[in-house]
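Show me a record, fold above all:
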Amino acid sequence: MSWIILIMSGVLEAVWATALGKSDGFTRLWPSVVFAVALVLSMGGLAFAMRDISTGTAYAVWVGIGAALTVLYAMVFGAEPASLLKIVLILGLVGCVVGLKFVDAAH
C-alpha cells in the first residue's frame, strides 16, 4: 500500500509543479488552488509512505516520478521542446525508480 501511495504522491508532485508554473507567481486563482491542494496531498502521501519505505528511497522515487511526469507533460503540451535525448533520459529516470522498488522489495 505504501508504494501505491508513494507513486500517487509522485504524480501529484507533477501536478503541483505544473500548477505552480501556470499560477504566474500565485496571481492566477485556479492554478494556485490546484497547486496548494496537490502540494498538501502529495506531501501527506510522501509522509505516509515513509512510514514503511526508507527516507532516501521514498524521496528519490517521489522526485523521480514527479520530474519525469512534469517534463513529459511540458513536452506533450508544447511548453518544452521534445527530443530523443530527453525521452531517453526520462526513461532512465523511470528505470531508476523501478530499480529502487525492486531493491526495496529485496530487503
Q: What stands out?
A: The longest helix spans residues 84-106. Residues 74 and 102 are 29 Å apart (CA to CA). The radius of gyration is 15 Å.
